[in-house]
Design a protein that fits this description.
By secondary structure, the chain is of the alpha/beta class. It has 15 helices and 13 strands. Bound molecules: adenosine-5'-diphosphate (ADP) and magnesium ion.
Length: about 375
Amino acid sequence: MVSSLDPKQLVKKALPVQKISNPTSGQNFINLPLDKKLQANIQKKGYTTLTPIQEQAVPVLLEGRDMLAISKTGSGKTAAFLIPLIMRLLEKPLAHSVLIVAPTRELALQIGEEFKELTLGMNLRWATFIGGTNIQSDLNHLSQKPQVLIGTPGRLLDLAKQRVLPLKQVNTLVLDEFDRMLDMGFIQDVKRLVEMIGSREQTLLFSATLDASQQKLISGLLDNPVEIQIDPGTSANEHINQETIQVADGEDKFLVMKDLFQDSSLEKVILFTETKRLADRLAKKLNQNGISAGQIHGDKSQNFRNRTLDEFKSGKIRVLVATDVAARGIDVADVNLVINYQMPMTMDAYIHRIGRTGRAGKTGRAITFIN
Ligand code: ADP
Ligand code: MG
C-alpha cells in the first residue's frame, strides 16, 4: 500500500498554547451542581476549568438527553460523559445499567481508571471486559454486580452470546471513539450489541471525527440527539509543531532517527510503524543503542502491553514503539514527540497518531519521515 498523504500537509507550526487551550467562557467545575465527593475527586485530578466539549456536554447530559459529540482527541471527552453519568448513577445506582463500548483494550482500561478516580469514596462499581483476559475473571467481575460495564465490542459480544452479560439491564449506552470503532471493523459487533440491549433511556456517541457517510448509521443509534461539534474533526491539534524529515537515498533512516535522541529533553517519545515486525525490530535496535524502548502491538499479550505502557508512563522506558491499532486513543501525559517512521496511510491515521502529543494544553511535536 502507498500512502495517500502529501508531505506538505505534515508540516505545521503550533499555535501558542494560550491562544487555544481555553477558548471557553472559563466555567469552573465548582460552579456545577455536582455531588460533593465528585467535586473533590475532580479537584484531585487537577481539573478546574471545563474544556469546551465538557462545557457543552455536561449540562445537557445531566438532563438525560441522547448526544452526538464530536471533538478532537485530547479534549477531555472521557470526563465529559463520565461526570454526568456518575451524577445519574448516584441517584439510581442500578446494577449493569451503564455500558461503555470502546474500540481498544487500552482505552477501555483508561476509561475504567478515570471512572475509578472520579468515584473514589462512592459506592459505585465498574468492570472492564476486554479480549486477552480470562473469561472466568469476567464472570467474577459480573458477580459483583457493577453498575458500569466497560469493554471492547468483541469481548462484550462473546459474553453476550454466552448469555452471561445482562444486556437487558443496560439503560445507558456510551459508544466512545466511534470513528475508531468503524475504522477497526467493529460496526457489525456494535450493531449486534445494540440490538441485544434493545430499548434504553440514553445513548451517547463520542468521536473525534465525523464522516458524512456515517450519518444514517448514527441516526439509527440515537434518539433525537443533541449534536455538539467543537471543531472540525479533520483539523489536527493546533498546538503541535509538525515537521518532516526527508531521508536521502542510501542514507540510513535508523541513524537519522537515533540522532534525534541526543536531545535529552525528549523523555517520552512514541514511535509509530506500519507493521508489527518493524515495531519489534526497531524496539530491539533502540535498546541495543542504549535508548530504552518497548513495543505494543496486536501480537503481544495484554499483560505485556499493559506492562510496557506502565513502564512508558512511569518513565522506565523512553520510547514506546507502536502500531496504530495498539496505540489508538492512549493518553499518556507529557509525550514530547511522536515519530512516524513511515508516512501513515491516511490523514485520519496521521491525526490520531500525532494527537498522542500536545495533550491537555501542552505544546507537542511530531516528526514524519519521508522517503
Ligand atoms: P479525549 O477522549 O477527548 O481524547 P481524554 O478524555 O483522554 O480526551 O482527556 C485528555 C487529557 O486531558 C487527559 O489526561 C485528562 O485527564 C485531561 N483532562 C480532561 N478534562 C480536563 C480538564 N477539565 N482540565 C484539565 N485536564 C483535563
Ligand atoms: Mg477518548
